[in-house]
Design a protein that fits this description.
about 75% helix; adenosylcobinamide-GDP ribazoletransferase activity; magnesium; cobalamin 5'-phosphate synthase activity
Length: about 240
């Protein structure tokens, strides 16, 4: 459970037992637990949302979004802002991209991406609760997105040393396939989530085409983009049942 607790510490603000004797290689081992942490995160979000849904769907959406941001500490939102800031300023110049990415200040492209992402999640959560989506679908979305972070880190070259690059150390290449099978089997009842693998492929192709690799910020941005697109797919799947 050492890897699970490290993954929990890295991806959330949830309290965990102390992990002693930490080494850099431990971070790579913890990546195998990212989808499991996503399942736990999704369970907590579903608990918050569906506990309040009976009072008002939009109140449930707001509280779920606040819980989403608080539980993750805004980790992936930070990556989203930094990545889109860099993409907006780089104009396909990789060196310029990395230069802007290392700037601690948030520019206009980052602010726009943050606002749009939070607005999109709020509206989609409101529609999801209004149309009575299953709590199991909400539970699975964070797990799919964190499977993406695991796969992207293994299948794209790192653009610089850092957290994204460390996830590739000693990581088992078969793990994404194992988690893919588990999550796809759990997602079969929800038509919208059948698109989840394609959404992960989309973000990998986007990074490969735009900058030719990944950083920790790009992984975080991918988690946010994937969660938003999967929420949209689930809502549309509910509104337009197959």
């Amino acid at each position: 459970m050492r890897g699970f607790f490290l993954a929990l510490q890295f991806l959330t603000r949830l309290p965990t037992p102390a992990v002693r004797g930490f080494q850099a290689e431990d971070l790579a081992r913890s990546a195998a637990w990212f989808p499991a942490v996503g399942l736990l995160l999704g369970a907590l979000l579903a608990l918050v949302g569906f506990a309040v849904q009976g009072f008002d769907p939009w109140l449930a959406a707001l509280l779920t979004l606040i819980a989403w941001v608080w539980l993750t500490g805004g980790l992936h939102l930070d990556g989203l802002a930094d990545t889109f800031d860099a993409l907006g300023a780089a104009h396909r110049d990789r060196e310029r991209f990395l230069q802007v990415l290392s700037d601690p200040h948030v520019g206009s492209f980052g602010v726009i991406a943050l606002v749009l992402q939070l607005m999109a999640k709020l509206v989609l959560l409101g529609l999801a609760f209004s149309h009575g989506i299953s709590p199991w679908a909400l539970l699975l979305i964070p797990a799919w997105a964190r499977l993406g972070a695991l796969w992207w880190s293994q299948s794209l070259p790192p653009l610089k040393p850092g957290l994204g690059e460390r996830f590739t150390w000693r990581a088992g290449r078969g793990l994404p396939l194992l988690w893919l099978g588990i999550l796809f089997a759990l997602s079969l009842p929800f038509a919208g989530l059948w698109l989840a693998p394609l959404i992960l492929v989309f973000w990998r192709h986007f990074l490969g085409a735009k900058i030719g690799g990944m950083t920790g910020d790009c992984l975080g941005a991918g988690v946010e983009v994937s969660e938003g697109l999967m929420l949209l797919a689930v809502v549309l799947g509910r509104m337009l049942p197959l």
